[in-house]
Amino acid sequence: METVFNKPKFSWEEYFSDKKKGGHRYSTEEFLYKEAKEKLFHLSGGKSLLDFGCGAGELLIYYVPNYERIVGADFSSSMLLEAEKKMWQQNYKNVDLILADDETIWDRLNISFDRITATAVVQYLKPEQIDAFIHHAFDYLNENGKIVFFDIIDPRLYSLWKMGWFSQNFRLWEILPKTGFGLLKQVSAILKNRPRDIIGDAYSPYLIEQIARDNGFKMEYVKSMYYEYRYHAILSKI
Ligand SMILES: C[S@@+](CC[C@H](N)C(=O)[O-])C[C@H]1O[C@@H](n2cnc3c(N)ncnc32)[C@H](O)[C@@H]1O
Question: Ligand 1: distance of its center to the CA of 150 in Å?
Answer without folding.
Answer: 12
